From TrEMBL:
Cellular compartments annotated: Membrane
The entry's keywords: Membrane, Transmembrane, Transmembrane helix
The protein, known as: Tetraspanin
Protein's UniProt keywords contain Transmembrane helix: yes
UniProt similarity note: Belongs to the tetraspanin (TM4SF) family.
Main location: membrane
Top-level taxon of the source organism: Eukaryota
Membrane topology designation: Multi-pass membrane protein
Matching PROSITE patterns: TM4_1 (PS00421)
Gene Ontology CC: one annotated term: plasma membrane
């Protein structure tokens, strides 16, 4: 295949951005696994959170939910960026097609989340307010 300066530059810019997202996904996945394995050291790091809101953040169910969300998001970021990086570097049509399909799925999920947030705005606001109220006030 004949390369000009523009296509070569696009190839390496795509590789660069996907490598950065690959590293970020690895970090998010690592933090999620760290939380799953050692929850107590994370609770020790929460000294910066004000004491009245600390009860919400150190409940085991909240930390466990955040852990699984971080692992899921990190693994998905890892997979998508790997497809983009390797597909661009090796010029694999299959990997680049999968990468494009995954990006379309991400865009559709973001649009759906935005529409649902607009429709259920009052419920989202109320649940956010309840999250910030200390647990002893609710009970």
């Amino acid at each position: 295949m004949v390369y000009d300066c523009g296509s070569c530059m696009v190839k390496y810019v795509l590789c660069g951005f996907n490598f950065i997202i690959f590293i970020a996904g690895t970090i998010v996945l690592g933090v999620g696994i760290w939380l799953l394995v050692d929850m107590s050291s994370f609770i020790g790091l929460l000294k910066v959170v004000p004491a009245d809101k600390l009860e919400t953040f150190i409940s085991p169910t909240f930390i466990q939910q955040v852990t699984y969300v971080l692992i899921g998001i990190g693994a998905f970021m890892f997979l998508v960026s790997f497809m983009g990086y390797c597909g661009a570097l090796k010029e694999s049509q299959c990997m680049l097609t999968l990468y494009g399909i995954m990006l379309i799925v991400i865009i559709l999920v973001e649009i759906t989340a935005g529409i649902l947030a607009a429709i259920y705005k009052s419920k989202v606001k109320m649940s956010t307010i309840l999250l910030l109220i200390p647990l002893n006030w609710v009970i």
